[in-house]
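2024-03-11 09:14:02 DEBUG pipeline.ingest accepted 1 chain
2024-03-11 09:14:02 DEBUG pipeline.ingest length=357
2024-03-11 09:14:03 DEBUG pipeline.predict start
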Amino acid sequence: MFAKLEGLERKYMELEESLADPAVYSDQEQYRKVSKAHADLRDVVELFRQYRSTLQQIEENKQLLHDPDPDIKAMAQEELDTLETALPEIEHGLKVHLIPKDPLDEKNTILEIRAGTGGEEAALFGADLFRMYTRYAELKGWKTEILSESPTEAGGYKEVIVLISGEKVYSHLKFESGAHRVQRVPVTETQGRIHTSAATVAVMPEADEVDLDIRPEDLKIDVYRASGAGGQHVNKTESAVRITHIPTGVVVTCQDERSQHKNKARAMKVLASRLLAAEEERRNSELAADRKALVGSGDRSERIRTYNFPQGRCTDHRINLTLYSLDKIMEGELDPLLDALSQAAQAEALKAEADIK
Protein backbone atom coordinates (compact mmCIF):
# COMPACT_ATOMS: atom_id res chain seq x y z
CA MET A 1 0.00 0.00 0.00
CA PHE A 2 2.81 2.38 0.91
CA ALA A 3 4.49 2.04 -2.50
CA LYS A 4 1.21 2.69 -4.29
CA LEU A 5 0.58 5.81 -2.20
CA GLU A 6 4.08 7.10 -2.86
CA GLY A 7 3.40 6.65 -6.58
CA LEU A 8 0.20 8.67 -6.30
CA GLU A 9 2.08 11.40 -4.43
CA ARG A 10 4.71 11.59 -7.19
CA LYS A 11 1.94 11.84 -9.79
CA TYR A 12 0.28 14.60 -7.76
CA MET A 13 3.51 16.60 -7.61
CA GLU A 14 4.06 16.16 -11.37
CA LEU A 15 0.55 17.49 -12.01
CA GLU A 16 1.28 20.41 -9.68
CA GLU A 17 4.32 21.27 -11.79
CA SER A 18 2.25 21.00 -14.97
CA LEU A 19 -0.29 23.48 -13.60
CA ALA A 20 2.52 26.02 -13.25
CA ASP A 21 3.69 25.43 -16.84
CA PRO A 22 2.69 28.40 -19.09
CA ALA A 23 2.24 26.04 -22.05
CA VAL A 24 -0.36 24.00 -20.14
CA TYR A 25 -2.08 27.13 -18.84
CA SER A 26 -2.40 28.57 -22.33
CA ASP A 27 -4.22 25.43 -23.51
CA GLN A 28 -7.48 25.67 -21.54
CA GLU A 29 -8.68 22.16 -22.45
CA GLN A 30 -5.39 20.65 -21.28
CA TYR A 31 -5.40 22.86 -18.19
CA ARG A 32 -8.90 21.64 -17.24
CA LYS A 33 -7.83 18.01 -17.59
CA VAL A 34 -4.70 18.51 -15.49
CA SER A 35 -6.65 20.50 -12.87
CA LYS A 36 -9.23 17.74 -12.55
CA ALA A 37 -6.59 15.01 -12.26
CA HIS A 38 -4.80 17.10 -9.63
CA ALA A 39 -8.01 17.69 -7.66
CA ASP A 40 -8.92 13.98 -7.83
CA LEU A 41 -5.64 13.08 -6.10
CA ARG A 42 -5.65 15.88 -3.52
CA ASP A 43 -7.60 14.11 -0.77
CA VAL A 44 -5.68 10.83 -0.88
CA VAL A 45 -2.29 12.59 -1.03
CA GLU A 46 -3.14 14.87 1.92
CA LEU A 47 -4.34 11.86 3.91
CA PHE A 48 -1.16 9.94 3.01
CA ARG A 49 0.97 12.85 4.20
CA GLN A 50 -1.02 12.93 7.44
CA TYR A 51 -0.48 9.18 7.79
CA ARG A 52 3.27 9.49 7.24
CA SER A 53 3.49 12.39 9.69
CA THR A 54 1.53 10.42 12.30
CA LEU A 55 3.90 7.46 11.97
CA GLN A 56 6.88 9.79 12.40
CA GLN A 57 5.36 11.42 15.48
CA ILE A 58 4.64 8.01 16.98
CA GLU A 59 8.32 7.04 16.62
CA GLU A 60 9.47 10.35 18.10
CA ASN A 61 7.20 9.96 21.12
CA LYS A 62 8.34 6.38 21.66
CA GLN A 63 11.89 7.71 21.90
CA LEU A 64 10.79 10.31 24.45
CA LEU A 65 9.44 7.54 26.68
CA HIS A 66 13.09 6.84 27.59
CA ASP A 67 13.65 10.44 28.73
CA PRO A 68 14.71 10.70 32.39
CA ASP A 69 12.29 13.61 32.97
CA PRO A 70 8.98 12.10 34.21
CA ASP A 71 6.95 15.07 32.90
CA ILE A 72 8.31 14.62 29.38
CA LYS A 73 7.62 10.86 29.59
CA ALA A 74 4.05 11.54 30.70
CA MET A 75 3.46 14.05 27.89
CA ALA A 76 4.96 11.66 25.34
CA GLN A 77 2.73 8.81 26.55
CA GLU A 78 -0.37 10.99 26.36
CA GLU A 79 0.44 12.12 22.81
CA LEU A 80 1.37 8.57 21.83
CA ASP A 81 -2.04 7.30 22.98
CA THR A 82 -3.79 9.98 20.91
CA LEU A 83 -1.73 9.25 17.80
CA GLU A 84 -2.14 5.47 18.04
CA THR A 85 -5.89 5.90 18.44
CA ALA A 86 -6.06 8.09 15.32
CA LEU A 87 -3.83 5.88 13.14
CA PRO A 88 -6.34 3.06 12.34
CA GLU A 89 -8.92 5.60 11.17
CA ILE A 90 -6.36 7.23 8.86
CA GLU A 91 -5.34 3.79 7.54
CA HIS A 92 -8.99 2.92 6.87
CA GLY A 93 -9.46 6.20 4.98
CA LEU A 94 -6.45 5.41 2.80
CA LYS A 95 -7.75 1.91 2.02
CA VAL A 96 -11.10 3.40 0.98
CA HIS A 97 -9.33 5.87 -1.31
CA LEU A 98 -7.43 2.98 -2.92
CA ILE A 99 -10.58 1.01 -3.79
CA PRO A 100 -10.75 0.95 -7.61
CA LYS A 101 -13.05 3.73 -8.76
CA ASP A 102 -16.21 2.95 -10.69
CA PRO A 103 -15.53 4.60 -14.09
CA LEU A 104 -19.24 5.49 -14.34
CA ASP A 105 -19.38 7.42 -11.03
CA GLU A 106 -18.76 10.77 -12.70
CA LYS A 107 -21.63 10.40 -15.14
CA ASN A 108 -25.03 12.03 -15.27
CA THR A 109 -27.96 9.72 -14.65
CA ILE A 110 -31.15 8.69 -16.39
CA LEU A 111 -33.70 7.74 -13.75
CA GLU A 112 -36.78 5.70 -14.65
CA ILE A 113 -39.73 5.28 -12.28
CA ARG A 114 -42.59 2.92 -13.13
CA ALA A 115 -45.77 2.14 -11.21
CA GLY A 116 -45.88 -1.49 -10.12
CA THR A 117 -48.55 -3.44 -8.29
CA GLY A 118 -51.26 -1.32 -6.67
CA GLY A 119 -53.08 0.45 -9.49
CA GLU A 120 -53.60 4.20 -9.07
CA GLU A 121 -51.99 4.18 -5.62
CA ALA A 122 -48.79 2.77 -7.18
CA ALA A 123 -48.88 5.55 -9.79
CA LEU A 124 -49.29 8.17 -7.04
CA PHE A 125 -46.38 6.63 -5.15
CA GLY A 126 -44.33 6.80 -8.37
CA ALA A 127 -45.07 10.53 -8.47
CA ASP A 128 -43.97 10.82 -4.83
CA LEU A 129 -40.69 9.08 -5.64
CA PHE A 130 -40.19 11.36 -8.64
CA ARG A 131 -40.67 14.40 -6.40
CA MET A 132 -38.32 12.92 -3.77
CA TYR A 133 -35.49 12.45 -6.29
CA THR A 134 -36.01 15.84 -7.96
CA ARG A 135 -35.99 17.53 -4.54
CA TYR A 136 -32.74 15.70 -3.75
CA ALA A 137 -31.33 16.93 -7.06
CA GLU A 138 -32.30 20.50 -6.12
CA LEU A 139 -30.55 20.17 -2.76
CA LYS A 140 -27.42 18.95 -4.57
CA GLY A 141 -27.55 21.74 -7.15
CA TRP A 142 -28.16 19.31 -10.01
CA LYS A 143 -30.31 19.92 -13.08
CA THR A 144 -33.30 17.76 -14.02
CA GLU A 145 -35.00 17.30 -17.39
CA ILE A 146 -38.02 15.09 -17.99
CA LEU A 147 -37.35 12.94 -21.05
CA SER A 148 -40.64 11.05 -21.07
CA GLU A 149 -43.73 10.85 -18.88
CA SER A 150 -47.03 8.99 -18.75
CA PRO A 151 -49.16 10.81 -16.16
CA THR A 152 -52.47 9.57 -14.77
CA GLU A 153 -55.60 11.66 -14.28
CA ALA A 154 -55.19 11.51 -10.49
CA GLY A 155 -51.70 13.09 -10.66
CA GLY A 156 -49.63 9.93 -10.56
CA TYR A 157 -47.20 8.46 -13.07
CA LYS A 158 -47.46 5.18 -14.92
CA GLU A 159 -43.89 5.93 -15.98
CA VAL A 160 -41.56 8.91 -15.87
CA ILE A 161 -38.00 9.15 -17.17
CA VAL A 162 -35.77 12.04 -16.06
CA LEU A 163 -32.20 13.05 -16.88
CA ILE A 164 -30.29 14.30 -13.82
CA SER A 165 -27.12 16.25 -14.59
CA GLY A 166 -24.46 17.41 -12.17
CA GLU A 167 -21.33 16.41 -10.28
CA LYS A 168 -21.03 12.66 -9.64
CA VAL A 169 -24.78 12.05 -9.92
CA TYR A 170 -24.44 8.34 -10.71
CA SER A 171 -22.13 7.74 -7.73
CA HIS A 172 -24.86 9.06 -5.40
CA LEU A 173 -27.87 7.36 -6.98
CA LYS A 174 -26.54 4.07 -8.35
CA PHE A 175 -27.85 1.97 -5.45
CA GLU A 176 -31.46 3.16 -5.92
CA SER A 177 -32.39 0.62 -8.61
CA GLY A 178 -34.98 -1.90 -7.52
CA ALA A 179 -38.51 -2.23 -6.17
CA HIS A 180 -39.67 0.43 -3.71
CA ARG A 181 -42.66 -0.59 -1.57
CA VAL A 182 -45.09 1.79 0.14
CA GLN A 183 -47.48 1.06 3.02
CA ARG A 184 -50.10 3.73 3.68
CA VAL A 185 -53.80 4.59 3.57
CA PRO A 186 -54.61 5.70 -0.01
CA VAL A 187 -56.60 8.89 -0.48
CA THR A 188 -59.29 6.76 -2.17
CA GLU A 189 -59.60 4.41 0.83
CA THR A 190 -62.82 5.11 2.76
CA GLN A 191 -62.34 2.47 5.48
CA GLY A 192 -58.90 3.73 6.59
CA ARG A 193 -57.18 0.47 5.68
CA ILE A 194 -53.47 0.40 4.97
CA HIS A 195 -52.61 -0.72 1.43
CA THR A 196 -49.29 -1.97 0.08
CA SER A 197 -48.20 -1.01 -3.42
CA ALA A 198 -44.93 -0.63 -5.26
CA ALA A 199 -42.99 1.25 -7.90
CA THR A 200 -39.77 0.23 -9.60
CA VAL A 201 -36.76 2.48 -10.08
CA ALA A 202 -33.97 2.05 -12.61
CA VAL A 203 -30.84 4.18 -12.35
CA MET A 204 -28.69 4.26 -15.49
CA PRO A 205 -25.52 6.19 -16.29
CA GLU A 206 -26.01 8.60 -19.18
CA ALA A 207 -24.18 7.07 -22.13
CA ASP A 208 -21.73 9.08 -24.23
CA GLU A 209 -20.90 8.23 -27.84
CA VAL A 210 -17.54 6.85 -26.71
CA ASP A 211 -19.16 4.43 -24.24
CA LEU A 212 -20.72 2.11 -26.80
CA ASP A 213 -21.19 1.77 -30.52
CA ILE A 214 -24.82 1.48 -31.62
CA ARG A 215 -24.98 0.42 -35.27
CA PRO A 216 -27.80 1.94 -37.36
CA GLU A 217 -28.57 -1.46 -38.87
CA ASP A 218 -29.33 -2.77 -35.36
CA LEU A 219 -32.16 -0.28 -34.92
CA LYS A 220 -35.79 -0.50 -35.99
CA ILE A 221 -37.37 2.96 -35.85
CA ASP A 222 -41.14 3.43 -36.05
CA VAL A 223 -43.00 6.73 -36.07
CA TYR A 224 -46.66 7.08 -35.21
CA ARG A 225 -49.24 9.55 -33.99
CA ALA A 226 -48.89 10.44 -30.35
CA SER A 227 -51.76 9.71 -27.97
CA GLY A 228 -52.93 11.24 -24.72
CA ALA A 229 -52.62 14.79 -23.46
CA GLY A 230 -50.70 17.33 -25.48
CA GLY A 231 -53.10 19.38 -27.58
CA GLN A 232 -54.59 19.06 -31.05
CA HIS A 233 -51.26 18.24 -32.70
CA VAL A 234 -51.24 14.73 -31.32
CA ASN A 235 -53.70 13.44 -33.89
CA LYS A 236 -52.28 15.34 -36.86
CA THR A 237 -48.57 14.55 -36.98
CA GLU A 238 -46.55 11.37 -36.62
CA SER A 239 -44.24 12.84 -33.98
CA ALA A 240 -44.03 9.85 -31.62
CA VAL A 241 -41.00 7.58 -32.00
CA ARG A 242 -40.43 3.95 -31.06
CA ILE A 243 -36.88 2.59 -31.30
CA THR A 244 -36.17 -1.13 -31.04
CA HIS A 245 -32.61 -2.37 -30.52
CA ILE A 246 -32.84 -5.62 -32.46
CA PRO A 247 -29.90 -7.56 -30.86
CA THR A 248 -31.18 -7.05 -27.30
CA GLY A 249 -34.89 -6.46 -27.85
CA VAL A 250 -34.76 -3.22 -25.82
CA VAL A 251 -37.63 -0.90 -26.85
CA VAL A 252 -37.84 2.83 -26.10
CA THR A 253 -40.73 5.12 -26.97
CA CYS A 254 -40.97 8.91 -26.73
CA GLN A 255 -43.91 11.11 -27.66
CA ASP A 256 -43.65 14.10 -25.31
CA GLU A 257 -42.26 16.56 -27.84
CA ARG A 258 -44.12 17.94 -30.87
CA SER A 259 -40.99 17.38 -32.94
CA GLN A 260 -40.25 13.90 -34.26
CA HIS A 261 -36.57 14.82 -34.34
CA LYS A 262 -36.55 15.76 -30.63
CA ASN A 263 -38.45 12.61 -29.67
CA LYS A 264 -35.95 10.49 -31.59
CA ALA A 265 -33.01 12.21 -29.91
CA ARG A 266 -34.52 11.64 -26.47
CA ALA A 267 -35.38 8.02 -27.24
CA MET A 268 -31.81 7.40 -28.44
CA LYS A 269 -30.44 8.92 -25.22
CA VAL A 270 -32.57 6.57 -23.11
CA LEU A 271 -31.76 3.56 -25.32
CA ALA A 272 -28.02 4.16 -25.09
CA SER A 273 -28.20 4.47 -21.30
CA ARG A 274 -30.25 1.27 -20.99
CA LEU A 275 -27.70 -0.60 -23.07
CA LEU A 276 -24.81 0.82 -21.02
CA ALA A 277 -26.61 -0.12 -17.78
CA ALA A 278 -27.15 -3.67 -19.10
CA GLU A 279 -23.44 -3.92 -19.92
CA GLU A 280 -22.57 -2.67 -16.42
CA GLU A 281 -24.90 -5.23 -14.86
CA ARG A 282 -23.28 -7.97 -16.93
CA ARG A 283 -19.84 -6.81 -15.78
CA ASN A 284 -20.93 -6.73 -12.14
CA SER A 285 -22.39 -10.23 -12.39
CA GLU A 286 -18.92 -11.49 -13.24
CA LEU A 287 -17.63 -10.31 -9.87
CA ALA A 288 -17.83 -12.61 -6.87
CA ALA A 289 -21.45 -13.04 -5.78
CA ASP A 290 -20.76 -11.91 -2.22
CA ARG A 291 -19.32 -8.65 -3.49
CA LYS A 292 -22.71 -7.58 -4.83
CA ALA A 293 -24.85 -9.22 -2.17
CA LEU A 294 -24.85 -6.37 0.31
CA VAL A 295 -26.03 -3.47 -1.81
CA GLY A 296 -27.95 -5.54 -4.33
CA SER A 297 -27.70 -6.34 -7.98
CA GLY A 298 -29.70 -3.40 -9.32
CA ASP A 299 -32.40 -5.79 -10.53
CA ARG A 300 -35.76 -4.03 -10.66
CA SER A 301 -37.51 -7.05 -9.18
CA GLU A 302 -35.41 -6.90 -6.02
CA ARG A 303 -37.28 -5.24 -3.17
CA ILE A 304 -34.82 -2.76 -1.73
CA ARG A 305 -36.83 -0.38 0.44
CA THR A 306 -40.14 0.03 2.30
CA TYR A 307 -41.76 3.38 3.05
CA ASN A 308 -44.23 2.96 5.93
CA PHE A 309 -46.27 6.16 6.30
CA PRO A 310 -48.36 5.27 9.39
CA GLN A 311 -45.16 4.61 11.37
CA GLY A 312 -43.14 7.36 9.66
CA ARG A 313 -40.32 4.92 8.93
CA CYS A 314 -38.19 4.01 5.96
CA THR A 315 -36.35 0.68 5.87
CA ASP A 316 -33.60 -0.29 3.46
CA HIS A 317 -33.64 -4.09 3.44
CA ARG A 318 -30.18 -4.55 1.93
CA ILE A 319 -28.35 -3.09 4.92
CA ASN A 320 -31.11 -3.51 7.56
CA LEU A 321 -31.27 0.23 8.13
CA THR A 322 -34.47 1.79 9.49
CA LEU A 323 -34.87 5.56 9.81
CA TYR A 324 -37.84 7.22 11.49
CA SER A 325 -37.63 10.37 9.39
CA LEU A 326 -39.86 9.48 6.45
CA ASP A 327 -41.21 13.03 6.10
CA LYS A 328 -37.68 14.39 5.58
CA ILE A 329 -36.75 11.54 3.22
CA MET A 330 -39.79 12.23 1.02
CA GLU A 331 -38.67 15.88 0.90
CA GLY A 332 -35.40 14.80 -0.67
CA GLU A 333 -33.16 14.46 2.39
CA LEU A 334 -31.66 11.20 1.16
CA ASP A 335 -28.06 11.57 2.31
CA PRO A 336 -28.46 9.49 5.53
CA LEU A 337 -29.71 6.59 3.40
CA LEU A 338 -27.32 7.02 0.49
CA ASP A 339 -24.26 7.58 2.72
CA ALA A 340 -25.03 4.36 4.63
CA LEU A 341 -25.32 2.44 1.36
CA SER A 342 -22.05 3.91 0.11
CA GLN A 343 -20.26 2.97 3.34
CA ALA A 344 -21.67 -0.56 3.12
CA ALA A 345 -20.40 -0.84 -0.45
CA GLN A 346 -16.96 0.40 0.64
CA ALA A 347 -16.82 -2.15 3.46
CA GLU A 348 -17.82 -4.87 1.02
CA ALA A 349 -15.17 -3.79 -1.48
CA LEU A 350 -12.50 -3.73 1.24
CA LYS A 351 -13.49 -7.23 2.34
CA ALA A 352 -13.32 -8.44 -1.26
CA GLU A 353 -9.85 -6.90 -1.67
CA ALA A 354 -8.68 -8.58 1.55
CA ASP A 355 -10.10 -11.96 0.45
CA ILE A 356 -8.23 -11.70 -2.86
CA LYS A 357 -4.97 -11.06 -1.03
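2024-03-11 09:14:41 DEBUG pipeline.report The longest helix spans residues 28-64.
2024-03-11 09:14:41 DEBUG pipeline.predict end
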